Amino acid sequence: MKINALPGNGVDLIEWIQGKADNLTPSEIRLAAHLNEHPEVWAFEPASHLAELLNMHRSTIVRFAQNLGFKGYPEIQAMVREGLLRSFSPAAQSLAGAEGEQCYPQIQQIFQRELSNLQRSYKSLDMELLNQTAELLAHSQKAVVFGRRFSFPIALHLGMSLQFIRGGVKVAPEPGGASIDALFDLTPQDTVLVVSMKRHSREVSRTLSFLHKKAVPFTLLTDTSPLVNLPENTRVLQANIGSASILASFTALTSISHILLSLVAQLTKSSPGRLEEIERAWHDFNN
User: Where is pLDDT greater, at 51 or 18?
Assistant: First the structure.
């Protein structure tokens, strides 16, 4: 969605908020993340209902809008609504049942949100950075995929898949181990893919700072919530994870992960032979 009434005519709203992230309070960062994931709420609901939904005072929402350069909540709401309405296609896609009938409204709502996540993620995806990350994962001496809490399953999938493509891959932290165990001996010839969603833990921040100090190339795969205190020149790949329920959607995140893996497989000439070797080992071990 585009802002026309703020400095920098035509700047993307989420990029505008991201540029001011370091000056936002924790409550305002939470508001920014909710705005990005649920623009339909901000577009049509009054500030009082939004405050009740997020369990915070209405004045916090007003101050958030003012800190971004708006006069107040009505102005930011108008901008979000305008951007949201522009994003709707005149011929919106729908999910049809086996006999051509529309599915249950709840399922249709989830389908539309998943489709929106994919469209918004790919529209803003930095293709050059995506290729740079794939090059690093393909050609570095060692590759580590790091993830904590809800980000760990994505990191585990990426790491295990990379192990089928190339050697020298670790997933961190390993069971029973600490994050530093997989990081302390890395060099600038290695690379790390850090997966971190929403409430970025201090451990993630410490990991990024550690890698930056050691000059180890790394990329952060994350959502579109505002990021603060990132090391200089951090590579950031972002996916929309908004959901029609209280659970975050990993559809776009998984899709971008698949693209990364596919690119690495194309760049790694030894991957077909490695897959055959793994298959033979698997067969020998289980027979």
Answer: 51
Q: How far is CA 137 from CA 126, 161, 192, in A?
A: 17, 12, 8
Q: What angle do CA 102, 239, 28 make, to 5 degrees?
A: 105
* Structural tokens at position 98: 């086996």
- Model confidence, pTM: 0.69
| DSSP assigned state of 179 | G
**Token pair of 115, please?**
């489709």
d(CA 183, CA 160): 18
User: Which of 103-117, 166-180, 253-267 is predicted least confidently?
Assistant: 103-117
> Residue 69: its pLDDT value, please?
84
pLDDT at 205 over 60: yes
pLDDT at 10 (0 to 100): 45
Q: Are 115 and 243 in contact (CB under 8 A)?
A: no
Looking at the DSSP bridge assignments, the partners of residue 170 are 144
Q: What is the mean pLDDT of the segment spanning 159-163?
A: 90
What's the Cα-to-Cα distance from 76 to each of 70, 80, 120, rounded to whole Å? 6, 6, 20
Average pLDDT of every residue of the chain: 80
- Predicted pLDDT of residue 91: 46
Q: Hey, what are 167's tokens?
A: 């050697």
Match 């990426």 to its residue by tokens.
158
How big is the CA angle at 222 (ends 220 and 228), to the nearest 5 degrees?
75
* Number of C-beta neighbours around residue 281 at 10 A: 10
Which residue in this structure is represented by tokens 């451990």?
203
Given a contact cutoff of 8 angstroms between Cβ atoms, the answer to whether 137 and 162 are in contact is yes
Is-contact 224 239, C-beta < 8 A? yes
Q: Are 158 and 145 in contact (CB under 8 A)?
A: yes
Distance between CA atoms of residues 116 and 121, nearest Å: 8
CB-based contacts of 174, cutoff 8 Å, min separation 6: 181, 182
Q: What is the CA radius of gyration of the chain?
A: 21
To which residue do tokens 């992230």 refer? 21
